[in-house]
Amino acid sequence: MTPVELSRTVLHAVRRAVDEGELAVDVPERVVVAPPGPGGCGDYATNVALQLARPAGRPAPRVAEILRPHLLRSGGITDVVVTGPGFINISLRSGAPVALVEEILRRGAEYGHSDALAGQVLRLHAAREVRAVVHLDVLCRLLRSQGALVRATWEGADEGAAGVAWASGLGVVPSGLPDGPGGCGDIRGDLSVRGRIDIRPVPAPADPLPLGRDAGRWALLYPAPHDRPRIGDEHLVQRESNPLFRVRYAHARTRALLRNAVDVGFAPEPGPEAVDGDAQALLQALADHPRILAGAAAHRAPDRIARHLVTVADAVLPLLPAVLPLGEEKPSAAHRARLALAEAAGTVLAGGLSLLGIDAPDHL
């Protein structure tokens, strides 16, 4: 069971409790599941009981206990424990990591995309400043990945090439942000548009164009919007000290392993053999990806994606030396499962970089 599926399962449990008269509340549109915090247990936790306590007129622990048997009747859940002020901690069957890898490979670059913001129509506007426009560009991609419709405008988009050379050089179309995959042009029809949302990150202290498109965008996006970005050659060095290099290097390594596996004569196949102590950090990072995208969209914070990609890269790199068989060793189920896990990590890295407007080369 993936985090998205678990979120739906929790919603279904709430709906069953309402239908059976155990809770008198409106079923929320969505609930959040995340790794357990301090004092928690299991694979995931949710605060849905705290969310429903006030409208239900009951203490959150009591709401959690009402939901517990409904969750236990759902396939894929082995245990439900209520902790603290009413957090619901959920343990999944051992096949959950395999299902996670399968879902990532099935959905590809769209893993983590959802309809959480479906029906919302947003109007974004940025000043004529390089960091604001790049943030606008990424937020359009991100909000659309969560189902929102977006109208985007920025000052200076119609001033001609001389006025917006820095924008086109960083992959933002001078005439505006176009319709199509990853774009977000004007919304047409009778849909009502919310009040304008101004995109105003702390301006860049220097011109990022000398860094090139990818490093320039990363330099503008990696810091939080309220932090001052650093525009320097540190974004170009091919060393571990450069987070962008680590992310792109990890992606390229996963793609190289897939090519090398073909030469050896085996293909990726998700399986429990890849699930060991060393892989837990990576599996958790991959499972967190949908939550990170949803949070980045809700808070207009593309830096959350960039930092999450670094987490995925740092988790997958130590595992890669054990993917291919060594010497005369024959490919085993463990090798195929590790290769599938590596491919899933590379898929998440490529999808995240694409949302940031940064290339994910297969060779580096």
From TrEMBL:
Q: Which UniProt keywords apply?
A: Aminoacyl-tRNA synthetase, ATP-binding, Ligase, Nucleotide-binding
Q: Which reaction does it catalyse?
A: tRNA(Arg) + L-arginine + ATP = L-arginyl-tRNA(Arg) + AMP + diphosphate
User: What GO molecular functions are on record for this protein?
Assistant: arginine-tRNA ligase activity; ATP binding
Organism the protein comes from: Streptomyces capillispiralis
Note the Gene3D superfamilies from the entry: Arginyl tRNA synthetase N-terminal domain, Isoleucyl-tRNA Synthetase, Domain 1
Where does this protein have coiled-coil stretches?
Answer: none
Looking at the record, the residues that make up the Arginyl tRNA synthetase N-terminal domain are 4-92
This protein's GO CC annotations: cytoplasm
Write out the transmembrane intervals: none
The UniProt record lists the EC number as 6.1.1.19
Q: This chain belongs to which protein, by name?
A: arginine--tRNA ligase
Q: Give the DALR anticodon binding domain ranges.
A: 247-364
Determine if Ligase is one of this entry's keywords.
yes
Which GO terms fall under biological process for this protein? arginyl-tRNA aminoacylation
